[in-house]
């Protein structure tokens, strides 16, 4: 099982000081977070993609390429790659280039994002969001798997005898997760292709997550990729920790109360009760994260959000230290206990290459 960090890259004032970091500071902070994740033994760093203030990660592959040069083991991913408004040709080329630079330590998460105005900025219609996701991804798969592509669709100009360059590393495209919070169509898309499904459940109660994951698992089996238990599932989570749980609640409350997304809404207590957000001790984070398996089954990837709502970098790095030193080692052990042998590990470039070579040898 893989554990890691995902960031949405928000530039938010610190409610305890009133200071807003500069864009440069926030970008550099995201890099520092990624390097800390590798230092403490986490597996994955994922960045979002946004094209509007108050966010900075408009060019994920630029950031991930920089991080690749400074790391050795960390898997570099996205927590959203906008399959709806990015050109599939550019996605194919950018991530293949990143694959080569990172020696295969790359996967990505397709999503539609949550910012409506981004569609007209890139010449698209938000009412076509699902259709764009379906058509663009179908083209992206062909670009990675066929050396020469002839294609015609609804949302971009046709391609005639087109070859995307560079070709995927070792002829193996990056593994794709389809990220969704609320759309069953995306769970269906992930199942159809046998890709991973990442349910970013940070705002939703367990029963909603359960329904979405069960839908994906059942449809994965329907399309003949394996049993429901063999489907590839990832989950989100949010944590804030101190060794004394009361200290964690007291310190995090002003950030929660003023957060751009959920501030001035439900209380911190209600939100932690109803969603995966855990504010407390490392042991409380361990217990709540382990409970995800009760409704999602044995899954492959757990990513935590720790750097939002204006939290200072020093505090965020302390959170990652606690994850690496006290939380994740226990989670690895506990999640492995009783895990059926039939449940696959999270895909990596090495495992995908081995499977491709085995399939080729069998032909």
UniProtKB/TrEMBL annotation:
Pfam family, one: Bac_luciferase
InterPro entries: Bact_Lucif_Oxidored, LLM_FMN-dep_put, Luciferase-like_dom, Luciferase-like_sf
Keyword Transferase: no
Keywords: Monooxygenase, Oxidoreductase
Lineage: superkingdom: Bacteria
UniProt domain Luciferase-like: residue ranges: 1-295
Region Disordered, annotated ranges: 1-21
Protein name: LLM class flavin-dependent oxidoreductase
Signal peptide: none
Segments of skewed composition (Low complexity): 9-20
């Amino acid at each position: 099982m893989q554990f890691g960090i995902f960031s949405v890259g928000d530039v938010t004032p610190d409610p305890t000081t009133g200071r807003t970091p500069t864009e440069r500071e926030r970008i550099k902070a995201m890099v520092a977070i990624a390097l800390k994740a590798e230092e403490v033994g986490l597996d994955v760093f994922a960045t979002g993609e946004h094209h509007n203030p108050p966010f900075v990660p408009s060019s994920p592959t630029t950031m991930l390429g920089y991080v690749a040069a400074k790391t050795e083991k960390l898997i570099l991913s996205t927590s959203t790659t906008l399959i709806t408004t990015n050109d599939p040709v550019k996605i194919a080329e950018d991530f293949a280039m990143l694959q080569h630079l990172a020696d295969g330590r790359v996967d990505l998460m397709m999503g539609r994002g949550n910012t409506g105005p981004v569609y007209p900025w890139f010449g698209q219609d938000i009412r076509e969001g699902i259709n764009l996701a379906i058509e663009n991804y179908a083209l992206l798969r062909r670009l990675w798997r066929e050396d020469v592509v002839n294609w015609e669709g609804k949302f971009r100009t046709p391609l005639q005898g087109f070859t995307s360059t560079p070709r995927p590393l070792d002829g193996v495209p990056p593994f794709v997760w389809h990220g969704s919070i609320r759309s069953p169509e995306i769970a269906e898309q992930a199942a159809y292709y046998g890709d991973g499904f990442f349910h970013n459940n940070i705002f939703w109660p367990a029963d909603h997550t359960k329904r979405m994951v069960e839908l994906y698992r059942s449809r994965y089996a329907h399309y003949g990729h394996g049993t429901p238990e063999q489907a590839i599932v990832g989950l989100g989570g949010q944590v804030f920790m101190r060794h004394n749980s009361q200290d964690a609640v007291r310190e995090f409350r002003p950030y929660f109360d003023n957060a751009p997304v959920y501030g001035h809404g439900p209380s911190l207590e209600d939100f932690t009760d109803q969603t995966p957000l855990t504010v407390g001790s490392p042991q409380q984070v361990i217990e709540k994260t382990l409970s995800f398996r009760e409704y999602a089954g044995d899954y492959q990837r757990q990513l935590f959000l720790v750097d939002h709502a204006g939290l200072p970098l020093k505090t965020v790095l302390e959170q990652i230290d606690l994850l690496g030193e006290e939380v994740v080692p226990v989670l690895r052990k506990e999640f492995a206990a009783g895990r059926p042998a039939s449940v696959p590990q999270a895909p990596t470039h090495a495992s995908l290459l081995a499977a491709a070579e085995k399939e080729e040898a069998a032909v």
